[in-house]
Design a protein that fits this description.
Oligomer: single chain
Number of helices: 8
Bound molecules: flavin-adenine dinucleotide
Strand content: 25-35%
Structural class: alpha+beta
Helix content: 25-40%
CATH topology of the largest domain: Uridine Diphospho-n-acetylenolpyruvylglucosamine Reductase, domain 3
Order of helices and strands: HEEHEEEEEHEHEEHEEEEHHEEEHE
Strand order of the largest sheet: 6-7-13-11-12
Shape: globular
Radius of gyration: 20 Å
CATH class of the largest domain: Alpha Beta
Length: 314
C-alpha cells in the first residue's frame, strides 16, 4: 500500500484556511525549559474551545503526528525537530476561577502551576501549595500526574474537560477515569486538556504563603537552576533514580553542553551551547552506566520528541 508522504505545507495551509493561528517551523527552544531543539513543523495556537474543535475537524490525527504542549518543562525536542502539529494553548485557557468558600478551583490548562499555587494561596485556598515548585502547566500536570512534597495531582483533581482531536467532542472525565499513577495518566496524545477542577480547601492565606515560602526554599537548596526539565528518570519502585545515578559514578558527567547536576543527579542541566543531541546522548549514556553498575534500567520521565527510539520510553 502506498502511504502518501506527510505534506505539512498542506496541513498548515488547511489550518490557516480554517482560521487558526499557524506558524511554520517555529523554534522549539522557545517552548521548552531545555531551550534547545529543532523546529516545530506546524505550530497551531488555540485560544478557545472552538479553535480546538476547528483543529479537530481540519486535521486527520491518524495521519499527522500531534504534540500538545504545555510549558515544555518535561519535553526534549530533537535537533531535527518535530514533524507534525504542535498545539499551544493560550487565551481562554489561561483563566483561573477561585471559590474561597468551598476551596474549589477551576484552572485553564495553560495556567502555570506556580501561578495556580500562589493565586490560590493569596485567595485563602490551601492544599495546592505543592505546585509552586513545578514549572509546568495545569494541562501538563494532569497528563503527567505531576506532584511533589508528598502530594500529587491525583489527590487534588476532581475532573477535567478535554477534547480528543480524533472526535472533536468535549468530554468531562473524573479523576478516577484518568487512572492516575506515578507520573502517569491514561490520556492519549491526541487529547487536549481544556481545564481542570481542583479541590483545595479554605485556609488562612498567611499559612498558605508560609508553606509556599518553605517549598521555594527547599527547591533552591536541593535542585539546580538553569535549563533543565526536572527529573530525567522516574524513580524505580523502592529506590531513587538520583541515588542510582550517583552510585554509577555519573554525577557531573558531561556531553557537550549537557551535564548531570552536582546538586541533584537526576537533573541534567543544559548550558547555552547545548544541543538536544547532547542532552539525549547524556540520557542514554547515564541510563547505560546505571544499568551496567546496578542492573536497573531507568525509564525516562522526560518525554523524548522526534527521536527515532522515543516510543520505547515512558
Ligand atoms: C525545575 C523543574 C522541576 C520540576 N519538578 C517536578 C516535580 O517536582 N514533580 C513533577 O511531577 N514534575 C516536575 N517537573 C517536570 C514538569 O514540570 C512536569 O512534568 C509538568 O507536569 C509538565 O507540564 P508542562 O505543562 O510543562 O508539560 P509539557 O512538558 O509541555 O508536556 C508534558 C506532557 O503533557 C502533555 N500536555 C501538556 N499540556 C497538555 C494539555 N493542555 N492537554 C493535554 N496534554 C498536555 C504533553 O503532550 C506531554 O505529553 C519539573 C520540571 C522542572 C523544569
Amino acid at each position: 500500500m502506498n502511504i502518501p508522504a506527510l505534506d505539512l505545507d498542506a496541513v498548515a495551509a488547511a489550518c490557516a484556511r480554517a482560521g487558526l493561528r499557524v506558524e511554520r517551523d517555529a523554534p522549539s527552544a522557545a517552548f521548552t525549559t531545555y531551550r534547545c531543539g529543532g523546529p516545530l513543523a506546524v505550530l497551531v495556537r488555540v485560544g478557545a474551545v472552538d479553535d480546538v474543535r476547528t483543529l479537530a475537524s481540519t486535521v486527520d490525527v491518524q495521519a499527522v503526528p500531534v504534540l500538545v504542549m504545555g510549558r515544555g518543562s518535561n519535553l526534549l525536542v530533537a535537533d531535527a525537530g518535530f514533524r507534525g502539529i504542535a498545539v499551544v494553548l493560550d487565551g481562554a485557557f489561561e483563566g483561573l476561577e477561585l471559590d474561597r468558600a468551598t476551596g474549589e478551583v477551576v484552572a485553564g490548562s495553560a495556567v502555570p502551576l506556580p501561578v495556580l499555587a500562589r493565586r490560590s494561596a493569596a485567595a485563602g485556598i490551601g492544599g495546592l501549595e505543592f505546585y509552586v515548585g513545578i514549572p509546568g502547566s495545569v494541562g501538563g500536570a494532569v497528563r503527567m500526574n505531576a506532584g511533589g512534597h508528598g502530594r500529587d495531582t491525583a489527590e487534588v483533581l476532581i475532573s477535567v474537560r478535554g477534547v480528543d482531536l480524533g472526535s472533536g467532542t468535549v468530554e468531562e472525565r473524573t479523576a478516577a477515569d484518568l487512572e492516575l499513577g506515578y507520573r502517569h495518566s491514561n490520556l492519549s496524545g491526541t487529547t487536549v486538556v481544556l481545564d481542570a477542577r481542583l479541590a483545595g480547601r479554605p485556609d488562612d492565606p498567611e499559612l498558605c504563603n508560609a508553606r509556599i515560602a518553605q517549598i521555594v526554599q527547599w527547591r533552591r537548596e536541593h535542585q539546580p537552576g538553569g535549563q533543565n526539565a526536572g527529573s530525567v528518570f522516574t524513580n524505580p519502585v523502592g529506590d531513587a533514580a538520583g541515588r542510582l545515578i550517583e552510585a554509577s559514578g555519573a554525577k557531573g558527567a558531561r556531553i557537550g553542553g549537557a551535564v548531570v547536576s552536582e546538586k541533584h543527579a537526576n537533573f541534567f542541566v543544559a548550558d547555552d551551547t547545548a544541543t538536544a543531541t547532547d542532552v539525549y546522548r547524556l540520557v542514554r549514556d547515564v541510563q547505560r552506566r546505571v544499568a551496567d553498575a546496578t542492573g536497573v534500567v531507568l525509564v525516562p520521565e522526560l518525554q523524548l520528541i522526534g527521536f527515532d527510539d522515543e516510543a520505547g520510553d515512558a
